[in-house]
Amino acid sequence: MTTGELPRGTGLDQDGCFVREGSLERVPAAFAPVVAGLTAAVAARFAPGRVLSTYLYGSIPRGTAVPGVSDLDALLVLRDGPTGADRAAARAAEAALDAAFPQIDGAGILLMARERLLSEAERYDGAWFTACLCTPLRGPDVTAALPRYRPTSLLARETNGDLHRRLPDLRRRAAAATGRERVRLTRGVCRNLVRTGFTLVMPRWGGWTSDLAASAEVFARYYPERAAPMRAAARAGRDPAAYPALLDELLNGLAPWLAEEYLAVHGAKALRPEET
Fold first, then answer.
1. Which of 8, 27, 65, 73 meets the CB 3.0–4.6 Å disulfide criterion with 58?
2. For the residues 61-79, what does the mean pLDDT come to?
């Protein structure tokens, strides 16, 4: 089956609810030392008991990671709000992992307090992300008691309905980024645009995929006139260095259109407490 032939209902169970993607059993053998290194780095840099739970997400637990190309993505759920020391520890762990393991091209560690993650404000954003797209690595699964999720417009709005607010900062960062920093920014922006395009149509399509190429093809079914830049973003999300000029093209073309269309279809993501 090609990516363009993904059936409706993909990624859902028989009741139409999300199936958690990824598992430790799917971690490719080449990345097993990276995962062990993450566990060791967290233990070494955070105070005992500070991290309640550690999760993996992205291509490594999905089993699709490519050595030398893929990055390591992790979420640490803390017992309370992240401090400056926590953020410094996460950045130090990222740098150490990136330097120690040639299998990965960068590491990213997200931090979130348990109370914030399970708050009403995060029910269809951070909590959904953790419950459906993250793989438990160490500690309890803090989302175990949450209700099941379906691919609704509410979920679409609360996951990606803030592109219009983030665009000015993305353009500022793109203007200043050079070298490896620009390559990594291109990868992150492209992945986000593809996933935003996919969640724009997700409720109509009625399914879920994290595969970039498949996401672009599903989007293309509903917006064929925008298919070319979305497919280009999907390609650059996997190999950003091969498309040095694409970042500016997307931020001045596809991105503003996508932001406006998202507002028209799903509305704006609710502001978080720190944004009000």
1. 73
2. 96
